Amino acid sequence: MNRFKKFIFNGLLITAVSILIRSVAVSFNVYISNKIGAVAMGVFTLITTVYGFAVTVATSGISLASTRLIAEALGEQSDTSSVKTYKIRCIVKKCVTYALCFSIGAAIILYVFAPAIGVKLLLDERTVRPLRILAFSLPPIALSSVLGGYFTAIRRVYKNAIVTVLGQGLRIFVCIFLFSVLGTSDVESACIAIVLGGTASEIISLAVQYLLYVIEKKNTNGKKVTSSEAGRIWKNILNTALPVAFSAYMRSGLITIEHMLIPWGLQRSGSSRDMSLAAYGIVQSMVFPLVLFPSALSGSFAGLLVPEVAESAAVGDTDRIHRIINRVFRSVLIYAIGTAGIMTVFSHELANTVYPHTDSARFILMISPLIPVMYLDTSVDGILKGLGEQVYCMGVNIADALLSVILVWILLPRMGINGYIITVYFTEIVNAALSIARLLKVTKIKLKIFDIVVKPLACIIFSIAVTKFFGKCIVGSMISAPILTSYIAMSVGIYLILLVLTKTFRFSEKERVLKDKRTPAQ
User: Fold this and answer.
1) Sign (positive/negative) of CA torsion 139, 140, 144, 145?
2) Considering Cα of 297, then 301, then 302, then 307, what sign does the dihedral take?
3) Is residue 141 part of a domain?
4) In 3-state terms, the chain is what percent helix, strand and coil (to 5)?
5) Would you say residue 4 lies in a domain?
6) How many domains does the chain have?
7) Which of 167, 298, 421, 440 has the fewest Cβ atoms within 10 angstroms?
8) Half-sphere exposure of 73 toward its Cβ, with a 13 Å CA cutoff?
9) Is residue 172 part of a domain?
């Protein structure tokens, strides 16, 4: 399989898994929102903000440490096979010890302080019991991070995919079962059913992952490493995991504060507590997952290009880096601008189809134009990391989170939910602008704005206009789910034809970029 075919195959494989997981997640969100209502979704989203920070503390960078140290051990040329085998086992054991220390500590803190967090910080007593239940899921998550890093390092990523899909299925099954047992008549019971499902799935997924690990290593024998080597392993784990952990604490902590302030700010603007939670739940748990769903495709292929950039940077092939970056910008913006156009114009129809009887349509309409910025920012961050600019990316992300907290604090009490939309726009644009500016400075590349922005924008506007015109003539103003699907398909078809006719997208150029692997040594 040549370089281009391998790239396409891997991209399609990752995309398929990503789309499957996201499809299940969005569908399950639709089911939950219809089952428990917007207010309960708001309360559950509040719970997940605190839980997200707890998971960050529980894992504390151990996934990266596990992957990196095991990969380095495998690549060590001076070690024999038996030494490598035992060294990897030693790394896994010490990573497990690290994970248990942080995760058990985080679980105890979350369980003990759940009443204070729920009542004093989240201002909602209904969050206390769900938070305490979620505390029991932290050690399994941390241990899964270690084993996931192990499978990634030894090139058994498919085992992680198996566990991920299994975990999603278990979570859905348990939640649906508990809904029938506990009921959804009150917000607290509904949230308890969801978090119990999540906790059970994490525990069972860890058991399956550990079984896969045991099967993987059962036929290997190793030679014990020295105590000094074991000490170096501990040092490497701490040197790798702790810097990542501390930066993650800062960003995750700021994001948690931001999300705690959103219902508070909405209440200060004049909304009731339930109305504030409903608006918050709609935006965070319904709109953003839908808007970000198509990024499964762009993110998968953009992520595969990162190693290409890193490899070319290592050998000083600047020309190839420029070609790859141009292709990433062109491909991502073509895809994102088309997605933004479709979601913006068909926002009401999408909302009525996916989230009926909710106020999600206006939020989809407001956030969809930001899609090109969000999708491109993700790709640019990945390229910068491939060029060794991860510290800069970390600084920008922390500054982004801090700016979000400040704007939420200032704008929401005065402007309500519109203040939050403004905050999202401002911070996303600033983040993307800083990242793009850094990329342009580091690579000294010049982008063709007319080709990558103006042409796709004109093509999607024309394609949707044609679709709407013929659709109105044929079926009128009533749009059902099948008709909406045909509208989107027609818009995409016309858009692709226009992209080819205007020479905005050239398939042959993409293949040449990937096939040309020039290095000074060749």
Assistant:
1) negative
2) positive
3) yes
4) 85, 0, 15
5) no
6) 1
7) 440
8) 28
9) yes
